[in-house]
Structure formats: C-alpha cells, structure tokens
Amino acid sequence: MSLYKDEAIVLFKRAFGESDKIIRLFTHKSGKIAAIAKGGSKSQKRFMNTLELFNCINVEYFEKTGKGLVRLENAYILEANHGIEENIKKVCTAGFFTELVDRLTKERERHDELFYLLKDILKTLKQAEFNYTDIVYNHMKILETLGFMPNLTECVYCGNKMDVEEKVCFSSEKGGVLCRACSSALPHKTYNEGVIERILLFCKGRGERDYRLTDRVMDEGISSKKESKGYVFLERQIQDIMEGFMSYHLDVELRSYRLLKRYVFKQ
Ligand SMILES: [Zn+2]
Known about the structure:
- The protein starts with a strand and ends with a helix.
- The relative contact order is 0.11.
- The chain is of the alpha+beta class.
- 35% of the residues lie in helices and 21% in strands.
- It has 7 helices and 8 strands.
- It has a 5-stranded mixed barrel with strand order 1-2-3-5-4.
- Residues 207-226 have low confidence and may be disordered.
- The structure holds zinc ion.
- Zinc ion is lined by residues 155, 157-158, 160, 178-179, 181-182.
C-alpha cells in the first residue's frame, strides 16, 4: 500500500458504524474518490472539524490496488467552510454545486479546471450570497468545463446560426436550441423570445457584481407592466430550461436543487 497526498474538497459525508465516517472527496490529482475515515466520528483529535462539507483540505490516504474505498490517514484544513455554514442560503447554494459536481463526474477522473472552479465557487460564496445570476453563471460554467454546456448559439441539430428572435425552441435531449425547421420534427419546449438569449447574457454579464436583469430593458416577449413580474417570469422560464436539461443528464433529481429552489429562489 502506498500513501498518497492530495488536495480535496469534501462533497459528502456520513457516519459509518459507531465511530467511522464515509466521505466523498473531489481531489485535485485523482478526481472523485470515496474514503473511509477510521475513528472519524468518535475521535475528536484525529479529524477534528476537517471532514466538514465544503471544506478544502490536504489529505493523506492509503489505497489498496483495485479496492474502492481509500483509507484516510490524515487531513488538514486549507480552507474551512466558515462563512457558509451559518447561512441557509449559502449552504443550499454550496450544496447544489457540490452535488452537481458529485453527480456529473466519474470516480477517478481528474478534472483540474473543475477542481479549481469548485474551489473558487466555495471561496467566493464565503464572502457573499450568490444572486440568481451568479447561480446560473456558475451552473453553466460547470457544464461547460465538463463538456455538457447546451448549445445556445446555433441550432443544435443542423448547425445553422440563429438570430436572437429565432431562439425559442429548446431541446433537452439534443442539448440546445433548435431552429424552426428542425423543431417541427424534434421534441422540444417553446419559450418566450429572449429567454434563451438571457442565459447567454447571464454568462457574459457576470464579473460586474451589480449586474441585474431588472436594470435592463425587458424584451418585448417578456415585458410586463410590473418589471418585477417580468423578472420572476423570466427566472421561471430559465429554471425550466435548466431543470429539463439537468433531468436529461442526471437520472435523479438533485436533492440540493429542491432546497435551492425553496430557500434561494423562494418557490
Ligand atoms: Zn436546425
């Protein structure tokens, strides 16, 4: 057995037996791994506060060739989750991103870019709550990093470039927008003009922390006497697209997404 050293983010933990813990880590060098922390539940000294969700830690573990679970030997905190744990919205947001990474990655697949992205998301979240734009932006970033980003610029079936006003049909199965011609033959859902383009705008618009949709002029298709109503309507449509897309790529609904909707999106 050899000893491995790595940096890792805690994705999941649960008690195992009387005194052990099973954890899932997203490591820098080896991707997602499952580990057993002997005495992780009982011994206050050994892994004191290190194996908490969303912590970024240095780990040392033993691995038997061909065995699933690695045995955690030591863990040291690099970046604790302080700043997230006491805020329900932040916990739900962090839970959503870590579960997304957990579900969308395979064990032992190294993803440098995704590792740094998740680390950055959690670090940023410690400083401030994410608004709706931040959540969509980072969700798309994760999908993009993994090669799952829906195609929102040209027809996903025939490859034709599409104007903004043409982008109204979205196919979760094909993973993107459909032009009028292709949409007649393929299953899809129709959205108001401008909604799909907004997802692209969300992705580009971040960086300016004060970017808010309500500051922008609503497209004709989603105009409303009350701007806030239009905003809520827009959010729902975007969520519908993201949910349809997620449920196509993941076989089960993310538990964390339900909580995100309840506590962050207030639905
Ligand atoms: Zn087409």
